[in-house]
Recover the amino acids of this structure.
């Protein structure tokens, strides 16, 4: 008994695509098919072969957490920590500048008044 052949319309329904997509795949020779006269026909083996060809393998996600000990996460500063450290450094520099300015002002006042700076 000969195999059952599917038409373009039936294949479009099976793959939930349009008939123009099926025709395009046939013309690009991406779907295995049989040419009978002026039309395309497909067997179950042809459709199964196409499904196997287009199968995308599952790639396991990389496992980073298992490779790095938990303690190592503390060694890498977070963006927020780096921002806070930058702010702290900036404030320390500003405080030092203000202390130097205050010392100069106090020295100037002491010079004008004849008192010794504290």
């Amino acid at each position: 008994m000969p195999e059952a052949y599917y038409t373009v319309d039936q294949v479009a329904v099976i793959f939930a695509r349009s008939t123009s997509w099926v025709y395009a795949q046939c013309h690009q020779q991406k779907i295995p098919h049989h040419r009978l006269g002026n039309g395309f026909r497909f067997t179950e083996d042809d459709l199964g072969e196409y499904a196997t060809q287009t199968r995308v393998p599952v790639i396991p996600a990389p496992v980073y957490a298992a490779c790095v000990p938990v303690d190592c996460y503390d060694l890498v500063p977070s963006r927020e920590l780096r921002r806070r450290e930058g702010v702290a450094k900036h404030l320390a520099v500003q405080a030092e500048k203000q202390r130097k300015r205050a010392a100069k002002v106090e020295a100037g006042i002491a010079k004008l008044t004849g008192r010794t700076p504290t």
In short: The helical segments are 8-15, 19-27, 44-53, 79-113.
